[in-house]
C-alpha cells in the first residue's frame, strides 16, 4: 500500500525475500546472501566487500553537466591531484570512452565493472551516457555496467537503463526532509528553470524515491549513497536508512563529507566540519543493524581506474590509449580466464573461513577475549603489501576470535614524499598517528626505525612479519598469537605520548 507523505511516497515495510524479480533485497549487516544474489555481485568491487580486493572498476568521465548543485561539490575537469568525486583529468566523448575502456580492459584483466559517475550527473547528460553504454554493450558485453546519479532525472530513464542491462544503480540520497535538503542543495534545474529552497529539495527527494521504487520493481540492485554532514543530516540518516530499506535498496554507503578549503566547495570555504572516524563508524553500525552498510568505499574520482584504492587513470590518458593496438576478443578471453581464477581463489578462501583453525582453549565460563583494532597497509589486492612510508590510507579491522571485520579506512598524507620534502615527515607521521587513534597494531610490508619507534611510543605496535600474506589470514594469526600469549588482558602498546 502506498501513502502520501508530503511530496514523497512511503511504502509499507517489506523485508528482503532473497529472490524474485522486483522484490527488493534488503539485508542487515552479516545476514547471509541468497546464492542467486551472491552471483550477481560476486565481481562487483563496490557491492561486494570481498570482491573489492580482487576485481577492478573504471569510471568514464563522459557526463560534464549537472542538474542540481550540492554544497559539497566543485567539479574540476583537468585536475590530476585531488582524489574525490567530481574531479577528472580529461573529459571524454562516448567514442573516446569506449576506446579507453577497451584499452583498460586489455591491460587490467581484473576489470569487471565500468561505471559512469560524473564528473556531473550521468542522467543530466543522457545522450552521452547512453551512447557510451550502447557501444560498450556491443563491444565488451562481459563487463558490468554501473551508474551513479543524484536521482533527479532518474524516473524518466529507468526504462532505458534496464534496456541497456544496467543491473547496478547508485542514487545519492542525503535526506528525506526538505528542510534539511534546503541546507544541502542551493538549487536544482527542473522543468526548464532553476528552483531553490525547500521546494527544490522536495522535488529532488520525490524523484529519488520514485526512481528507487521503479528500479527495485525492475529487479535492479540499488545502492544508496549518503554524505554524512555533521549538524546537517547526521541525525537523520538512520531514518533515511530505514525508509530506503523498506523500499528495497540493497546497500547503504554512508560517506564522510569531504570539505577542505582547497576543494573550493561551499562547505569547504565556509568551514563546515567533516565527521571524524568514530562518528562515521557509530552511524554505520547503527544503520547496519537495519540495512547493510558499505565500509570499503574510496570516494573515487570520476575517472578512477583499477582496484578500489588505486587510481591508474594516468596510465590510460587519451594520448597513450590512441597509440595502443588492442585485440578485444583476446582481451575478453583473458578476462574470462582471470575472473574464473579469482572466483576459485575466493571459493577456496570461503572454505578456509568456514572452517577456522582451532583457537587456544579457555574455560567456558571465561569472558570472550576482547576485540582488537588493527590497521593494515595494503596496495589494494587483499594482501599486506604496502610499505608504511608509501601508504596513502590504512584499512581498519576489528579482530576477534570469530572474524576480522573491516570497519573502514583512514586516509593520510604519505609519511615521506622524497628528499625534497623530508622536513614534512615528522608532521606527517604525527598526522598518521592521529588518524590511527584507537588502533593497537599496525601491519605493513616494511617500516623504518624512526616511524616504528614513534608509533610504538604512541601505543600502536608495528608488525612487519606478515608481509605479502592475505589480510584476514595475517590479522587472525596475529590475534591468535596475542591470545595464546595471554596479552589480550591489557592494552598492547607502550602509549607514552599523545601525538
Ligand atoms: Fe563506480 Fe559507484 Fe559503480 Fe562503484 S564507485 S559508479 S558503484 S563502479 Fe564504489 Fe567509488 Fe565508493 Fe562509488 S568505491 S565512490 S561506491
Ligand atoms: Fe556535484 Fe554530483 Fe551534486 Fe551534481 S549531484 S552537484 S555532480 S555532487
What does this structure look like?
The protein has 499 residues and is α/β, with parallel strands linked by helices. It folds into two domains: 2-322, Aldolase class I (TIM Barrel, Alpha-Beta Barrel); 362-484, 2-Layer Sandwich (Nucleotidyltransferase, domain 5), CATH 3.30.420. It is 32% helix and 16% strand. It contains 14 helices and 17 strands. It has helices spanning 35-41, 94-107, 126-139, 158-163, 178-184, 197-217, 237-246, 266-270, 277-288, 318-322, 328-354, 425-435, 449-457, 471-484, and strands at 2-5, 8-11, 56-59, 68-69, 111-116, 144-149, 168-172, 187-190, 193-196, 221-228, 251-256, 305-306, 372-376, 393-399, 404-411, 441-443, 461-463. Strands 11-10-7-6-5-3-12 form a seven-stranded mixed beta sheet. It has a five-stranded mixed beta sheet with strand order 15-14-13-16-17. The protein has a three-stranded antiparallel beta sheet with strand order 4-8-9. α2 runs parallel beside α3 (126-139), α2 (94-107) crosses α11 and α5 (178-184) crosses α6. The protein is globular. Bound molecules: FE(8)-S(7) cluster and iron/sulfur cluster (SF4). Iron/sulfur cluster binds at residues 66, 68-70, 73, 75, 86, 118, 120-121, 150.
Structure characteristics:
499 residues; alpha/beta; Nucleotidyltransferase, domain 5; seven-stranded mixed sheet; five-stranded mixed sheet; 16% strand; disordered N terminus; disordered C terminus; binds FE(8)-S(7) cluster; binds iron/sulfur cluster
